[in-house]
Amino acid sequence: MSEQIQRLIDGSRKIVIKIGSNTLAKSDGTQNTDFMKSFARQCKNLMERGKQIVVVSSGAQVSGVSTLKEWARKKDVHYRQALCAIGQVELMSQWRKAFAESDLHIGQLLFTKEDFENNLHTLNIRNTLFTLVDEGVVPIINENDSVSFEEDSIGDNDNLSALTAILWSADLLVLFSDIDGIFSANPKTESDAQFIETVSNVEELLASIKIGGTSSFGTGGIASKIGAARKCSPYGIPVIVANGAKENILDNLANGTGRGTVFLAG
């Protein structure tokens, strides 16, 4: 299984990696800057092998809580959007510092649902992405949560990462989760949950597993990751779901020692 993941990464040049709020948050809900520095170093390792990396990063709200702790319990939508506005600045500041330690520059792109429905917008997104990666800059993408509203939202960053992978014609999408991959049931609550190494048919998978709820920090659970894989499959883009909290997970996936679930494309 690990060798299959290694082969996928070896054979991919354009890789989208999605990092959820759970991976970016420590147990107290504040930013995990140690993870960010480690992840940036691992991206540099892949880029030195000729890979181009695009990152879809959640965490604006987590970063906002890290900045303004007294707003953490406010539920009003205007406060949540304002918190994301504050947090997005802090999130990118920390990503800039993390990648700078590996001598890499980053670029920020914030999208709304409309951007993927407007042909001129999608053309400009593609051109910007190609320019950034060709110059060795790492694009970091997030939904523009400060202006998006529920009825017009992209949904979650699993979906955003799938849309980005399709738009950029990526070779591979990696989704970081808080568990090792896809299981037959929630491994945190059911001891007999079986790990699923490879998925070749998403519909058969959905008919055979029990899907739980979302996590305390993230909006996207396993169901949204399966949905992202389903979206990418017709475009020939395989998807890996792995545990972002595992030490050096990106390095280990690349060298064949990391664990994850592979969704085959097509």
Observed structural traits:
10 strands; alpha/beta; 10 helices; 266 residues; two-stranded antiparallel sheet; 42% helix
Topology:
Blueprint: H1 2-10, E1 14-19, H2 21-24, H3 33-47, E2 52-57, H4 60-67, H5 77-100, E3 106-111, H6 119-134, E4 138-143, H7 157-168, E5 172-177, E6 182-183, E7 195-196, E8 198-199, H8 202-208, H9 222-232, E9 239-243, H10 249-255, E10 260-263
Describe the structure.
- With 266 residues, the protein is an alpha/beta fold.
- The protein contains 10 helices and 10 strands.
- It has helices at residues 2-10, 21-24, 33-47, 60-67, 77-100, 119-134, 157-168, 202-208, 222-232, 249-255, and strands spanning 14-19, 52-57, 106-111, 138-143, 172-177, 182-183, 195-196, 198-199, 239-243, 260-263.
- The strands form 2 sheets. Strands 3-4-2-1-5-9-10-8 form an 8-stranded mixed sheet, with helices on both faces. It has a two-stranded antiparallel ribbon with strand order 6-7.
- β3, α6 and β4 (138-143) form a beta-alpha-beta unit.
- The protein is globular.
- The model is unreliable at 214-219 (pLDDT under 50).
